[in-house]
Amino acid sequence: MPHLQQQSDMMDKLVSLCKRRGFIFQSSEIYGGLAATWDYGPLGTELKRNVKDVWWRSIVFERGDIEGLDAAILMRPETWMASGHVSSFEDTLVDCKSCKKRFKVEHVNGKSCPECGGELTEARQFNLMLKTHLGPIEDEGSLTYLRPETAQGIFVNFKNVLDSMRRKIPFGIAQMGKSFRNEVTTKSFTFRSREFEQMEIEYFVKPGTDEEWYHRWVEERFSWYIRFGIRKENLRKRQHEKHELAHYAKACTDIEYRFPFGWSELEGIANRTDFDLKQHSRLSGKEIEYFDDETKERYIPYVIEPSGGIDRSILAFLCDAYREEEVRGEKRVVLGLHKSLAPLKVAVLPLLRNRQEIVELAGRITDDLRVRMRVKYDDTASIGRLYRRQDEIGTPYCVTVDVDSLADRKVTVRDRDTMKQDRIDVSRVKEYLTERLES
Known about the structure:
Blueprint: H1 2-20, E1 24-26, E2 38-40, H2 42-61, E3 66-69, H3 77-83, H4 85-88, E4 90-95, E5 102-104, E6 124-127, E7 130-133, E8 143-146, H5 151-155, H6 158-164, E9 171-180, E10 195-205, H7 210-227, E11 235-239, E12 251-259, E13 262-273, H8 275-284, E14 290-291, E15 298-299, E16 302-309, H9 310-321, E17 322-327, E18 330-335, E19 346-350, H10 356-370, E20 375-377, H11 383-393, E21 397-401, H12 403-408, E22 410-415, E23 421-425, H13 429-438
Parallel strand pairs: 3-9, 19-20, 19-21
Antiparallel strand pairs: 1-2, 4-5, 4-6, 7-8, 9-10, 10-16, 11-12, 12-13, 13-16, 14-15, 17-18, 21-22, 22-23
Helix pairs in contact: 2-9, 3-8
């Protein structure tokens, strides 16, 4: 019980920090909030952009075999018929007649509400897709859906990308974007939301080579999280049992993170075989074969799919970075985010805001740094409080301008993680920081 309480306390602290420091807010909060929807504040927006940037750079820029795509959220409803979402993307749910809460059948034992003990309704099927209508008249013909995943936008564009970019198998298509699911279980902060962003790859391979590529992608994606700061002991790989596999999957491995609420999925790597391309070919009547010029073979590629959640990744990075320590008898809260992910890279802090010369010098340093990195000027508290504020939001470096700076033209640069301070000539500050932020 103490261990569970400690985990709960840690999550509460993180949620509080996110609200207080401008990372994540409850959507529509002034109207009482909308369950399982979240707004990213000023610092959260920067963190999210940085997570997306490092993923895109490592997947598209650093490799020579992946192209990017940004498909529309709205698609023809036939897309979701081919994928199986219309017929099988459902949860079996029960409602409590007393407290009105809704539960998945697999989360209920017996016929009583797990929350209040009240009587439950008969089980019913709910489709997880969010419906909408296109055009001025809402009828059967105008019905469509907000996409529940980004994958199908890639599959229907397979031939477009293949032909326009003159690609050969194996190659991949990467996409980031919003998806929507009418989730019933919406606990654990941003872990499970109704509106969320995915970072997804569909990697097309020759049948028979799929198992090799599947294992390669499992290892590559596992390493990516470690590369950007997640501790290895907080990650694990969990291969799905046969009864867990989706209807399209030959194999699937989840990369799981040890959140304060337990081990849960960050990303899934699935061998989807040729299911999706065959389905779209059949329903559309269009040929989606690949022709190999060298071997003169025709075949429908198999697909390896690494699919991760951006919002879940952000939550994992925040959980893993959060720490509390005691410094000179005081508690110090630190977000030890990887430098590439930190919302602010540098804070410039004038020691005395009532000394015009110090303020002006700090302002010039800020403007000089701003063209290369995200920098924040702050003179709204004592230097001790300013340091603690920047530690708590994960800023890797603080530059302090003091009285001596006016004479020796040097400033103090403080490292977030070691708290070590270096005295640097003003003319070298940009070079000094750039070297450390890019290393």
